Amino acid sequence: MKAPSSLEQLIQALKVLPGVGPKSASRMAYHLLQRDQGGAANLAHAIEYAIATLKHCRRCNTFTEGELCEICADEDRNHQQLCVVEMPTDLLMIEQTLAYHGLYFVLMGRLSPLDGIGPNEIALARLLERAVDGEVQEVVIATNFTVEGEATAHYLAELMRTRGLQVSRIARGLPVGGELEHVDPGTLAQALVERRKL
Amino acid sequence: MKAPSSLEQLIQALKVLPGVGPKSASRMAYHLLQRDQGGAANLAHAIEYAIATLKHCRRCNTFTEGELCEICADEDRNHQQLCVVEMPTDLLMIEQTLAYHGLYFVLMGRLSPLDGIGPNEIALARLLERAVDGEVQEVVIATNFTVEGEATAHYLAELMRTRGLQVSRIARGLPVGGELEHVDPGTLAQALVERRKL
Ligand SMILES: [Zn+2]
Ligand SMILES: [Zn+2]
Questions:
Q1: C4-type zinc fingers: which residues (chains A, B) (predicted)?
Q2: Of A183, A185, B62, B140, which one has the fewest beta carbons inside 10 Å?
Q3: Of the ligands numbered here, which is closest to the C-alpha atom of B73?
Q4: Nearest CB partner across the interface for B10, out of A16, A50, A89
């Protein structure tokens, strides 16, 4: 006696979600099938729609439905500043502070050799191309203050400096080990204002 | 500036999963889109396939792809015993013991008034119909030994007894290989109260 194969397939499929092991996958599958088939159908549709719709902004690499995201398309932003963040959520957090008016570059990750994430897995080549376009004067590195975020920052700073760019790092107003996502906008604004030259 | 709407929709849709709040939903969405689009497409398909394929066994209420599950269709099982469990996973656990050869009834939940799960949300009416079919002689209640599982067991036992059925409850006690030193006082107390004559 085993679970029916379509149920087993659903449980296996749910394990692609980060932080979801066999136990949670099983609980999720039963919940979807037994208590929320409408929500389940909607989830399937949302996944397919997002895959079909979302691409990376040609300039900043964040997720967007068009060729250029709203920010990159905004002529009123300061095109001489380029803020480098790990994830789109970090970009949204910085936007909420209203303390930054330049453009962004979203790495979609951070260097993490142990997880197999090297320079090729984050969009480093595209960032460099972007940073030396002649318009960018200052690169503000706003990766997280985690071990991996810091390593990424140092690696980026080195690359930028050898290309003659001015590089700064948002200030360590964030707690050590802290992530942008978990900090209040005021602290984050302060960290932007007090960015250090690297 | 907000996330693109198809990304926002995906994050919202992921929140139907039990135990997934806004933060995890966001992390899951980025992971699916950035690191595992194949797994994401597969998940969408598995959800749709499971919804389309799975139904409840006409006799025992577990998930099955046919009208009757393998166990209910098995003529060699003891049709006079009916074991009541909360979820299909519980049924699979009992099957693994090879210690039970009767049939099952799967409630697909347990009474939990605080979560809005009353007698109508679990398949009580169908269980009663099944239990009084003339064939069933003994009902073995194997709901969990949680507060809610116990309450469900007492409620069921009462219903069954008034219908003249013999009702039993799986035993509580120390695990096989268990040491008194490592068991909680409540379990040990129950093991003493429910001691068997040798
Ligand atoms: Zn952009
Ligand atoms: Zn069945």
A1: 57-72
A2: A185
A3: 2
A4: A50
